[in-house]
Request: fold
Amino acid sequence: MSRKLLLLLGALLLLFPSIGAAADWKTPFVVYYDNLYKITDESVPVDRLGMKLGKIATYADTEGAYKGNFSNALPKGTEFKGILGIDVQDAIAVDSGSGSYVKAVYQESYADSKLSGTREALERLDWLWSLLIAAAAVAAGAIWWRKSRRGAGQGR
Reply:
């Protein structure tokens, strides 16, 4: 009985993905088109500002799974722009208030991180369903084998 309980407990643990934080929520950051940028103190001169890229759609002060353009440090509606001479994949400029902009440096792809845990959870569920189907097949085979042996033994 204890083996069945341990197996069931192990299977249940697989349902709950371990959610690792790819983004350090103690560090101010902004996510723009699935790219995570760390906000720095380096100011961007007005003459280096490029075109408007977008604005913060969600202020997120607690760790979790968020979509779209969001930040853990900047309020909703904060604009960000490109920086002339710097690829958007390397850095962007974010409004730090009163029209001054600071540089936010690319860190990693947010879509591929474990922040949301969704992709990892789905992979674990696929594996779990495969395990459960295999276990059901083995159990059905064992029951069939026992019944066929009993039937063969009773006919003699």
